[in-house]
Design brief:
alpha/beta; about 40% helix; binds nicotinamide-adenine-dinucleotide; binds uridine-5'-diphosphate
């Protein structure tokens, strides 16, 4: 048997990134819905490298095959083109449920579909988890706190969401996804974990994502104007994608079942530097647009556009729960993560230019 194991290990490492060899007892069958997306594909890398069997289910609305193409053909990997609004029947041990558009322009494109994905889709995933007895992790969001009256946001805060505004399809969709998770836990004994994810960035973000990180980097790289929506006084706290993946894996491995914030607590205004005096925070608030300008070394102008409707004004996670129960906290400093991301977008721009030429 050892001889056979060694043979398999060699075969695998010859053609693919080196994966750990796990015997059948330790190897899990893991479903990642939305696994071809930005966060999902980084999670898939982590799970594959650890030696698990990974099934990605994705409808490729915002995800791309190229995000996971380096695993296609690997015997531990399966890519299934499927829309989770329809039922799915698989046999798995764990489910990371990430399928849902995440950036505001994407989820507002087809609000009805966004609601269906987060409600009907989540029912199907919980039904599947119930049938096969799988542990399930639901990717929820800081958007469940809406435009918060409590700062920083801790998990005990119930939120301040406009139920009929343009963001409601996503915010309320995720709130129902959480409600469904705890209903399945209480009524059906499903083992659920709920991660409330705060703004995350990194390579493989979609070029047309429309989120602040990709917009500002692309604008800076092309010497275009950097677009501030509204006053720029609004704040966000940005975490690098590898920190998020650490948090998700730690949460799945834990027995903790209450919602848990996964985010970086270092807060930035989008542009306006007066905010740091207004709020008199002990934590330094720095302007995100200027950080990007500085790192890219661009002459881009900064322009102020109309504010977007229902834009949350302040966002910073209280991560004491994650520290206490998961022994998790983010490790990657903003500038370090941004440098990697800027390099990624610079290469993507080069590729686009190259393909336009040919
Ligand atoms: P993404 O858009 O890159 O990935 C989402 C993936 O889900 C895509 O591959 C998409 O094709 C797939 N998908 C969407 N609808 C589907 C459906 N009906 N059936 C099957 N697949 C479907 O977004 P992301 O940033 O990787 O986000 C992943 C998850 O994390 C989402 O659930 C999102 O709500 C959550 N989240 C992300 C952030 C963030 O800052 N990135 C913040 C909070 C929460
Ligand atoms: N479901 C699924 N895969 C499964 C089991 C269930 O997609 O392996 C779907 C099923 O279509 C159902 C939903 O999950 O609509 C909820 O399942 P549950 O067992 O809770 O509900 P019921 O089937 O009793 O309506
Ligand atoms: N934003 C901006 N310019 C842009 C894109 C976004 O000023 O080109 C602002 C947006 O209004 C919000 C913040 O940046 O206040 C973060 O927006 P994003 O869409 O990245 O994520 P959100 O946290 O709102 O889901």
């Amino acid at each position: 048997l050892q001889h056979l194991e060694a043979k398999i290990e060699n075969k695998v490492s010859k053609d693919f990134p080196t994966v750990k060899f796990l015997n059948y007892k330790n190897r899990k069958r893991i479903l990642v819905t939305g696994g071809a997306g930005f966060v999902g594909s980084h999670l898939v890398d982590r799970l594959m490298l650890a030696g698990h069997e990974v099934i990605v289910v994705d409808n490729f609305f915002t995800g791309r095959k190229r995000n996971v193409e380096h695993w296609v053909g690997h015997e531990n990997f399966e890519l299934v083109h499927h829309d989770i609004v329809r039922p799915l029947y698989l046999e798995v041990d764990e489910i990371y449920h990430l399928a849902s558009p995440a950036s505001p322009p994407h989820y507002m494109l087809n609000p009805v579909k966004t609601i269906k994905t987060n409600t009907l889709g989540t029912i199907n995933i919980l039904g599947l988890a119930k049938r096969v007895g799988a542990k399930v992790l639901i990717a929820s969001t800081s958007e469940v706190y809406g435009d918060p009256n409590e700062h920083p946001q801790s998990e005990t805060y119930w939120g301040h969401v406009n139920p009929i505004g343009p963001r409601a399809c996503y915010d309320e969709g995720k709130r129902v996804a959480e409600t469904l998770s705890y209903a399945y836990m209480r009524q059906e004994g499903v083992s659920v974990h709920v991660a409330r994810i705060f703004n995350t960035f990194g390579p493989r973000m979609h070029m047309n994502d429309g989120r602040v990180v990709s917009n500002f980097i692309l604008q800076a790289l092309q010497n275009d104007s950097i677009t501030i929506y509204g006053s720029g006084k609004q704040t966000r706290s940005f975490q690098y994608v590898s920190d998020l993946v650490d948090g998700l894996v730690a949460l799945m491995a834990s027995n903790y079942t209450q919602p848990i914030n996964i985010g970086n607590p270092v807060e930035h205004t989008i542009e306006d530097y007066f905010v740091r005096y207004i709020y008199n925070e002990s934590q330094l608030v720095t302007e995100f647009a200027l950080i990007i300008k500085d790192l890219v070394g661009t002459n881009s102008k900064i322009v102020e556009l109309a504010a977007v409707e229902d834009d949350p004004q302040r966002r910073r996670p209280d991560i004491s729960r994650a520290k206490k129960y998961l022994n998790w906290e983010p490790k990657v400093p903003l500038a370090e993560g941004l440098k990697t991301t800027i390099m990624y977008f610079a290469k993507e721009l080069q590729k686009t230019k190259h393909s336009q030429k040919n």
